[in-house]
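cron nightly-structures :: item 1 of 1
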Amino acid sequence: MGVKILSQYALFGPYDFVNILEAESEEAILKVAIKKTAGGKLEVMILPAIPIDKFIESMKE
């Protein structure tokens, strides 16, 4: 689906796992999320992220 898994972690606390994914678009990530949650047994939270230097640069504009 054009998405690469960069890393996966088991968590302690209110969430069980976190997966760090890389994709060319947010739409690709959404397709994966929809496919994985279609059965109703998995809940997904998507948190788009950008490198901190890009974030700082965008705040200057």
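cron nightly-structures :: done
Helices lie at 26-37, 52-60.
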